[in-house]
Amino acid sequence: MISFIIRRVLVSIPLLFLASIVAFILVVNTGDPIEDLRTKPNVPKATIALREHELGLDKPVVERYVSWLGKAVHGDFGKTIKNQPVWAQVRRSLGVTLRLVLFAEIVSVLIGVMIGVVSAVKQYSWFDYGATTGAFLLYSLPVLAVGSFLKFILAIRLNRWIGRGDDPLIKTIGEGTANFCTASKPYNCGFIPSVTDFLSHAFLPMLTLVLITFAGYARFSRAAMLETLNADYVRTARAKGLSERRVIMKHAFRTALMTVATVISLDFGALIGGAILTETIFEWHGMGRVLVESINKIDPNLLLCWFFVTAVAVIAFNLIADIIYAVLDPRIRLD
Amino acid sequence: MTAPRSDGAEPEAQQPGSVEREFTVQQRSQWKTIIRRFTHHKPAMISMVVFFLLMVFAFAGPLFWKYKYDQVLKKPLGGNKDWIRPSWEHPFGISKGYDVFAQVMRGTQYSIRIALVVTVVSVSIGVAVGAISGYFRGFTDSVLMRFTDLMLVIPYLAAVAALQRNVKGSTWLWLALFLAMFGWMGIARVIRGEFLSLREKEFVEAARSVGASAPRIIFKHILPNTLGPIIVNATLAVGGAVLAEAALSFLGLGVKPPDTSLGKIIEVGKSKATTYPNEFWWPVLMLCLISLTINFIGDGLRDAFDPKQNRVRA
């Protein structure tokens, strides 16, 4: 088992290395970071040359890549075009995104798997038809539409309904109240006020993410569950006279969970870079914001770091999916 | 379903040459069965009609509508507002002097146009990679599949956005090509799987034994058998491309003026989503309609091509 894991990790390293090359090629082709300076009239040539030198643009691309990689493996991702350390900014945004994504993912997995399993067990029942149709509709709706609906229509109604129309409880913008806990507002600095503030901001974006992801899991676990329910060993278990509950929970569900777990793990890796739209709609300062800003302002180091972090996430969760599958499925040979 | 069933219950039916049935069974070809299954899938058929109407709206609409998308309308605007509420003259109202109905028609047209280019290009790349990989196996397969894995590591939207930033002039075609460049991996994997299993079948062995060349086996023998998954995936790719394009344009990283798209109109209209909803919610609704109809059609096609996992029995 350990040698299997080590081998998979070793395979991942060249993949990450190649991904960093692709990312570098993309970043080089994003544009010229000092385009503004160049097109501005009356800027002395020396100023442009100095700026070029500062950003390392005067060196050939390969040399730039090698020096970036050399620093990156030591954890130094350089500075943004505004001379701020890149890693500090990315780490902060990653924290914001993780808070949002982790919780939403857990909730949607729980709801999705539960609905999927129940509709598979009660196949062709009213519950099954309702759940399948509902999941299909939610699965097909664009994030843009779901998020906008929650933000512009539902939030206002809900706030009015709970009698907080003027001082909305459900916030639609940002991941937290600005200057929430300062010296002038010491009563906000406790654990409970800050959690409440976070939840009041996180409710809508989490609901958006849950609505669009749980449907996929429901569909998937329904299919996986149906497959195992028709398997021979489930019939054997029934023939042995086991209770229906035991057949479903111990024999069918466990096997179905195996494939579901892999899909969830793969999905989660993609979500770290992939909640861009939800974050933008609700104006969170997460990884999505970093991406949009670094591309708009052509900030090579920031964009590279973004690509690096998301690539690591995707590769890491691919790895975890492989390991989960190997651990859970005895049919997988490890050697 | 295709072959008439003889159930030997009647002793007369057993006698050779004198097969008599109470009812006649019409023979159906494989394609006839598929089309029949598809046309019996109600949501898919309704979606086909709605999607057809959307296409008419997007492509024929601008030719007949009395206002052009770039026609500045000099109408008195009330107070400090830059918009006018909908009327019979302007079903979606006027915003900044432009007829929103004409804008949405043009946006839908661009969105569908981009999606079609993305689909044609990405499906071509995907099928080519998948076919080569699955047919030749071995070293070729390893190289191509590692490359596919690599492309999957780079987040799709981010890669396209990074390249799109540098495009000047007409942007929509470039955006479509970039989206295709980073969107072929899923279909490549599906087609590879199909090829891997089909290349071991007897009919391929027969073709090989009579000396058919690799291109001939790929194009004449295996590819026609993978048409089902190709059509299903291509259909779903159209929906995916519309949404991806809308997402990028909404983030301000997609098409730039003078081009437009549903995502672009939504981006422009989002600041007025609560005060003047027409420029925001109509394109959002179009987006939902496209996505829903495409998914229903894809679902119907999947059921039609793959009766083993069907929910609708025909």
Automatic annotation (TrEMBL), chain A:
Subcellular localization: Cell membrane
SUPFAM superfamilies: MetI-like (SSF161098)
Record field: transmembrane: 9-28, 100-121, 133-156, 198-218, 255-277, 306-328
Gene Ontology biological process terms, A to Z: transmembrane transport
InterPro entries in alphabetical order: BPD_transp_1_N (IPR045621), MetI-like (IPR000515), MetI-like_sf (IPR035906)
GO cellular component, one term: plasma membrane
Keyword Nucleus listed: no
Topology of the protein relative to the lipid bilayer: Multi-pass membrane protein
Domain (ABC transmembrane type-1): residue spans on this chain: 94-325
Major localization listed first in the record, in broad terms: membrane
Keyword set, alphabetical order: Cell membrane, Membrane, Transmembrane, Transmembrane helix, Transport
PANTHER family reported for this sequence: DIPEPTIDE TRANSPORT SYSTEM PERMEASE PROTEIN DPPB-RELATED
Protein name in UniProt: Unannotated protein
From TrEMBL, chain B:
Residue ranges, annotated region (Disordered): 1-21
Localization: Cell inner membrane
GO cellular component terms, semicolon-separated: plasma membrane
Gene3D superfamilies attached to this UniProt entry: MetI-like
Species assigned in the record: freshwater metagenome
Keywords attached to this entry: Cell inner membrane, Cell membrane, Membrane, Peptide transport, Protein transport, Transmembrane, Transmembrane helix, Transport
Keyword field contains Heme: no
Pfam families: BPD_transp_1 (PF00528), OppC_N (PF12911)
Record-given protein name: Oligopeptide transport system permease protein OppC
Transmembrane segments: 44-65, 114-136, 143-165, 171-191, 230-253, 280-298
PROSITE patterns named in the record: ABC_TM1
Membrane topology label: Multi-pass membrane protein
Signal sequence region: none
Annotated ranges, domain ABC transmembrane type-1: 108-298
GO BP terms: peptide transport; protein transport; transmembrane transport
SUPFAM superfamilies noted in UniProt: MetI-like
InterPro entries: BP-dependent_transpt_permease (IPR050366), MetI-like (IPR000515), MetI-like_sf (IPR035906), OppC_N (IPR025966)
Claim: Transmembrane is one of the keywords in the record: yes
